[in-house]
Amino acid sequence: MSRVxxxxxxxxxxxxxxxxxxxxxxxxxxxxxxxxxxxxxxxxANYVSQQDSxxxxxxxxxxxxxxxxxxxxAVCIDTVSDSGMAALxxxxxxxxxxxxRHAMLAALMLGEKFSILAMWDRWRHLYTKTLAELGLAxxxxxxxxxxxxPNNQSLLSGKExxxxxxxxxxxxxxxxxxxxDVIILGSTTMHEAHSYLAERLPVPVINPGPxxxxxxxxxxxxxxxxxRIAYPSPHAPAAERLRTMGQAAGAI
Length: 252
Prior knowledge:
The protein is an alpha/beta fold. It is built from nine helices and eight strands. It has a four-stranded parallel beta sheet, with helices on both faces. The protein has a four-stranded parallel beta sheet with strand order 6-5-7-8, sandwiched between helices. Helix 2 (50-64) crosses helix 9 (239-251) and helix 4 crosses helix 8. The mean pLDDT is 93.
């Protein structure tokens, strides 16, 4: 049985964690693979500033740094920001899959230009960073926001009738005005809107979280992992210091 650790980028209770686990229903992987969801202990309130990005990297690194020794075969990061991905790749010898960059790369297997459909404008810097790192800005037709305030705990539950039409209207503009032929959901917190949008839009809609599960399964079966040249190991791993930080954060 293969085991995959899914790192959830915010501390949360069991009921809200179930909303994250619901992403598994969007992909059929069959027997032989199991997913464990783990909320971080260190996190910003939201991902809207450079300070937030630092905290997110540390929190996700702390949550996953022992994944290999705990017997996991891969790690999926449940945020399109890809926070902590590079750091975890430097200390783990198992695949580490980030939702953001892999959604963009998958979009180019399906079309020529993609748009990123976001909840609100304050996430824009997350996408421009990854686009710059991948050199794919010219393949991004647009970054569009539906102007909606996200909730990283309850996600879209209870707001479907209000939020889904706004997201659909913004996606239509991506296609008709910006020239997108693929839509990427700009956050794993938006996964509940995927079916609604996929049924109503004339182009593929990528759901980043479930995509990481499929890619993790493929990487395990193909015995692939990241390049150690691209992600060199640290001279002095900081697992113990990070554990102490995580315990302190969890006690607050």
